[in-house]
Amino acid sequence: MIGCPACGEATRDRRRWSGLSFYECEFCRVLFVHPQPGGEELAAAYRSCYYPADPTAGAVYRTTPPALGERLLSCLIRHRIVPAGGGRLLDFGCGVGDFARTAMAAGIEVDAIETDDLARDAAARRGVRAWRTLDELERARGSGAYDVVTLLDVLEHVREPLRLLQILRRVLRPTGALYLSAPNYQSVQARLLGARWDQATNPTHLFLFSPRSMRHLLMAAGFRMAWLSCALRDPTVGTPQGLLSVLLQHLRLSATLRVVARPV
Ligand SMILES: [Zn+2]
User: Fold this and answer.
1) Is residue 39 very low, low, confident or very high in pLDDT (cuts 50, 70, 90)?
2) How far is the CA of 139 from the centre of ligand 1 (A)?
3) Which pLDDT does position 18 carry in this prediction?
4) Which of 98, 116, 140, 262 has the fewest CB atoms within 10 Å, measured from its CB?
């Protein structure tokens, strides 16, 4: 039996896709890597997949493109998740700071956290107030400082998602909201591609979520959640695919789960 790192329940040795080292928790249904790679192995994976030391080498996986970040911010403002006219936002896992800069340009006061040294330095050079750890941030800002915390495709990367969400709940104002996106292993893409799905083969992904496992995790961390009702699409994608994307969002079969969670 293996302890599920997301919910703590013991689960039997079950692989979801042959050849991949994900186990499925029989209780909360999250998929998780076991054992998790060590720090050096993970750092090397980030170098090759996201932040190559030689910028001309090109990354294997792209982070949230700026145009998508702008649409996301408009959606968050329209749904009053980000207060109109400003507010304070924490972008956890800011990468090189694209979304943080979009929010700053809209008049929002932004702090960011990025554990990868190379990415954080790049974000700081671009004017983003980027911290290394939540501990450092909390010492400087205290508890209950933020109207919004964003986790854009981050939760699948962290070692202890439940613990992270519990801490983020603390840094939020009681009336604040958490917005997060994460890959959906019950999506059409995942079902069709199986072990060839790029989200499953990404060596920096330690967890994969389904609608059920996401809801379970957020409830355990002290949040009530709702699916974000405006389906976002990449502006480079044409209308027919855009409509399909909206439909898949409503059926919870989309590649990305989009969630708004508020402290209970
Ligand atoms: Zn579990």
Assistant:
1) very high
2) 31
3) 60
4) 140
